[in-house]
C-alpha cells in the first residue's frame, strides 16, 4: 500500500485546477517527469508466453486496481517523456522509464530490472469537450522493453487524462497496455504512470513577449496590459480604443486631450484654450446666463438670450425674468422656469432612503420598518412639487427571470401607492420593474445579491 500512496499523492493537486490551454500549435512542446507502475497480473492469460508462470496472471483487467498486491513501483522519478504537438489534436510522445520488479502477480520476483523506451501517438478530446482544464486522450504506439536484460518489442494501446493547472503545467495520469511480440521471452503487461507536464514553445509572431494565443494584436507589437495591443502615444489607452492615438490624452475622453481642463475634449471644444462649459461646446459664460461670452452683449451681467445676454427685471436673480418666472421670489433655474432644481445631493438622499426600503421575503408588501423611510421620501418630494420621478424596482438573479420581473414591478407599485396615499400626486410618479436585468454587483455572492435587491428613485427629465 505504501507504493500506491506514493504513486497517487499527486492527485491532491486536483484541488487547485483552473481553466487552461492544453498542448497545441501555440505551445507545441512538453516535458513530463513522473513515476510508473508495472502490473503483469491484470494483462490477461497468455499460455504462449512461457517466461511468466501461469499463476502470475489473471484474466484481462482482473484486479486492475489492486496496486498493493500487483503493482511494481520504484519510489523515485522513474519516467521521463518528451511530447510534440503534430496537429488536429494529435501529439507524438517519446518516453523512457525504469523500474524494479519484485512481484509477478502473486508470485515474488528476484528484484528484476525493468527498462522501457516507447513512442506514442495520442489524440486529445479536450477541444471536443469545450477546451476546459479536463483533457482526456487515447493513443497507440510501440516500444522496446528489457526485463532482467532480456529485451522484447511491444505494441501499445493507452488511455490517459491531463488536468491543466494553467497554460504551462498539468498532471498526467496514463495507463498503457503493452503486448509483447516474442512469446518465448516477452512479457505482456500494463504500465501505469503519473507525472507532471511542463509545456513550452509558444508562438509570438510580433515579438512582443505575448504568445499569439493570448495576443489580441498578434501581428503588431504591443503591451502586456493591453493583451498585446499597442499604445502609440503612451497615454495608457490602447490605440484601438483611442480616438486620438497619436496625441496623449485622457481615458475619460477616449484618449483625446483637454488642453483647458474644462471637461470637453479638444476635438469637440470650440474654445480649446479657455475653460468653458459643455453646454456651450467648451466656451465660457462669465455671467452664467447660458450665453457664451463671445455671443453675449453683457458678458459680465446675466441676461436673456432674447436681449443679447443683457438683463431684464429679475427680482430673485435667478436668470429668469419675472414675467416668465413660475417662482419669482425663489431663485431657481432657467431650465425649470425659475423654480429650484433637484440637486445631486437631494437625489442622493432620496436614493439613500430608497436603498433601505424593505419588503417581506418573496413578496411585494412593505415591511413596517420601511414606513418611516418612505415618510422621509414624501417630505422631500413635497419640497419639489413640480418634479416627476420613476420608482424603479430591481431584484437579484435567484429564481426565474419571469418571477423576478413580476416581483420587481409589484414592489415598485407598492412604493408608488404608499407615496400617493401620503399626498404625492399620482401624475408625478411612474412605477417600473426591471427584474434581474440591471445588476450593479455580481450575483455570485451573497453581498452582491443583497446589493442588487434594491429600489431606486430617478428624476424624469422635463420634455
UniProtKB/TrEMBL annotation:
The entry's localization annotation reads:
Cell outer membrane
Which Gene3D superfamilies does this entry report, sorted A to Z?
OmpA-like domain, TSP type-3 repeat
Any keyword Membrane? Answer: yes
- Extract the PROSITE patterns matched here: OMPA_2 (PS51123)
From the UniProt record, list the coiled-coil ranges. none
| Presence of the UniProt keyword NADP in the record | no
**Which range is the signal sequence, renumbered to this chain?**
1-22
SUPFAM superfamilies in the record, alphabetically?
OmpA-like (SSF103088), TSP type-3 repeat (SSF103647)
Q: Which UniProt keywords apply?
A: Cell outer membrane, Membrane, Signal
Residue span(s) of domain OmpA-like: 346-463
The protein's matches in Pfam families, at most eight in alphabetical order, are given as: OmpA (PF00691), TSP_3 (PF02412)
**Entries under InterPro entries matching the protein:** Bact_OuterMem_StrucFunc, OMP_bac, OmpA-like, OmpA-like_sf, Thrombospondin_3-like_rpt, TSP_type-3_rpt
- Superkingdom of origin organism: Bacteria
Under the heading PANTHER family, the entry gives:
LIPOPROTEIN YIAD-RELATED, STATOR ELEMENT OF FLAGELLAR MOTOR COMPLEX
- Tell me what this protein is called: OmpA family protein
